[in-house]
């Protein structure tokens, strides 16, 4: 890494602590100056020499993507900047927003060439999720400058496009094709239109993820989004680790450390061996399966944050399915069935109904836009306890699938009680 990039990282950390954290409600205003080191990008030739000081070329971008402290702060910076603009309103400073979009487009473009690295693939997913938010907000900015529109075009070109929704005809007005809001729980905003029914989702109220009766090609671990050593894993994650043979434990431990002992909220990643290939683990039950880490965002009571949290949770569920789809295109051992437990409903305090709504939106979107034959099992270890989060999640997902089936000849899923 060039010395100037090391200096950039030092300024980034200083600015993040002294501006973004110390002035959490006003850091987005034009009174603060930090664009070139908070949103690094290859500077154009017509800017001042001072502006060119922190210009980041392709190799610089690769180095920064591989620098854990920088890239974590970079993602948090964009997340906080977008959140403040949405919360407090447009700051009429489109030059900074344009630089941010250009920087984000550059980091996505470069990381697209590094997807063989599992850590970079996870970062790439998170950056694209931020790009969607940035593009969405940018499209509402009035009187945008030429520079702003050019930067938006760059970012839009590397941002995944959602499938165009098809109109849903509802024969019974009393049963609208929307996500129904449970009592005292927030409603999913703009749910995804219904997919073509395919009976791909099975909700199992009787068995947990590691029960012998759960036979799948892959299982999902609701992984920590904060650095956490495997020795401190508890709950289902800890049980997964204890179910492994010693050699498999070493593979999991090595890979987890390479990830920085965490995954980003809204992303997923399969566990890989020393050769960079997805590894099939042998559980104590004898079942051989791949292991996928998925990161849920933490729930915040502030209603202003709910849409953003839901978007990240949908992204986490969707990332699982998209990762499996990519895996099946190249891997010898295909994933035909995956067990996905509810995400975020434990210590991250996501209301179970909200997590179910996000899962439904993600799975529906996935099956609507692919011809995949992947089957999903939702294992609910505490599914018989009517007061448990597992049960509430299962009932909400069941209701959503049932409501969808009211307008279509087949159901998206089936239920085991």
Descriptive report:
The protein has 417 residues and is an alpha/beta fold. It folds into two domains: 3-157, Serine Threonine Protein Phosphatase 5, Tetratricopeptide repeat (Alpha Horseshoe); 201-416, Leucine Aminopeptidase, subunit E, domain 1 (3-Layer(aba) Sandwich), CATH 3.40.220.10. It is built from 13 helices and eight strands. The protein has helices at 3-21, 35-38, 49-52, 58-65, 68-88, 94-111, 118-138, 146-157, 235-242, 246-258, 306-330, 352-369, 389-405, and strands at 201-204, 218-223, 268-270, 280-282, 288-295, 337-339, 375-379, 413-416. Strands 1, 2, 3, 4, 5, 6, 7 and 8 form an eight-stranded mixed beta sheet that branches. α11 (306-330) crosses α12 (352-369). The longest helix is centred in the last third of the chain and has 25 residues, at 306-330. The N and C termini lie far apart (57 Å). The model is unreliable at 163-198 (pLDDT under 50).
Topology readout:
Blueprint: H1 3-21, H2 35-38, H3 49-52, H4 58-65, H5 68-88, H6 94-111, H7 118-138, H8 146-157, E1 201-204, E2 218-223, H9 235-242, H10 246-258, E3 268-270, E4 280-282, E5 288-295, H11 306-330, E6 337-339, H12 352-369, E7 375-379, H13 389-405, E8 413-416
Parallel strand pairs: 1-7, 1-8, 2-5, 2-6, 6-7
Antiparallel strand pairs: 3-5, 4-5
Helix pairs in contact: 1-5, 4-6, 5-7, 6-7, 6-8, 11-12, 12-13
CATH topology of the largest domain: Leucine Aminopeptidase, subunit E, domain 1
Catalogue the unreliable spans: 163-198
How many domains? 2
| CATH level 1 name of the largest domain | Alpha Beta
Rough shape?
A: globular
Structural class: alpha/beta
């Amino acid at each position: 890494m060039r010395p100037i990039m090391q200096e950039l990282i030092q300024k980034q950390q200083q600015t993040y602590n002294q501006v973004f954290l110390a002035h959490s409600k006003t850091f987005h205003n034009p009174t603060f100056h930090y664009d070139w080191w908070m949103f690094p990008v290859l500077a154009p030739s017509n800017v001042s020499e001072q502006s060119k000081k922190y210009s980041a070329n392709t190799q610089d971008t690769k180095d920064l993507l591989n620098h854990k402290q920088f890239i974590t702060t970079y993602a948090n910076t964009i997340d906080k900047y977008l959140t403040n603009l949405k919360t407090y309103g447009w700051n009429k400073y489109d030059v900074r927003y344009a630089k941010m979009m250009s920087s984000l487009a550059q980091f996505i473009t470069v990381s697209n060439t590094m997807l063989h690295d599992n850590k970079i693939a996870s970062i790439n997913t998170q950056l694209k999720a931020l790009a969607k938010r940035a593009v969405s907000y940018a499209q509402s900015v009035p009187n945008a400058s030429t520079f702003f529109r050019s930067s938006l075009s760059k970012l839009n070109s590397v941002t995944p496009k959602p499938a165009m929704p098809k109109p849903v005809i509802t024969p019974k007005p009393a049963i609208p094709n929307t996500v129904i809001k449970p009592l005292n729980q927030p409603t999913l905003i703009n749910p995804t239109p219904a997919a073509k029914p395919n009976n791909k989702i099975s909700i199992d109220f009787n068995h947990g993820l590691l029960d012998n009766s759960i036979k799948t090609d892959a299982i999902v671990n609701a992984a920590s989004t904060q650095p956490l050593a495997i020795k401190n894993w508890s709950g289902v994650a800890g049980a997964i680790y204890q179910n492994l043979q010693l050699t498999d434990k070493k593979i999991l431990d090595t890979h987890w450390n390479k990830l920085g002992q965490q995954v980003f909220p809204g992303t997923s990643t399969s566990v890989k061996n020393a050769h960079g290939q997805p590894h099939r683990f042998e559980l104590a039950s004898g079942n051989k399966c791949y292991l996928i880490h998925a990161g849920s965002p933490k729930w915040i009571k502030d209603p202003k944050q709910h849409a953003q949290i839901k978007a990240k949770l949908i992204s986490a569920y969707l990332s699982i399915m998209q990762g499996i789809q990519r895996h099946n295109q190249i891997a010898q051992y295909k994933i035909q069935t995956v067990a996905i437990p509810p995400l975020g409903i434990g210590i991250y305090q996501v209301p179970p109904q909200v997590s179910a709504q996000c899962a439904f939106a993600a799975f529906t979107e996935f099956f609507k836009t692919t011809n995949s034959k992947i089957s999903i099992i939702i294992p609910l270890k505490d599914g018989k306890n009517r007061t448990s989060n597992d049960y509430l999640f299962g009932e909400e997902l069941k209701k959503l699938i049932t409501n969808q089936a009211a307008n279509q000849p087949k159901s998206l899923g089936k239920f085991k009680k």
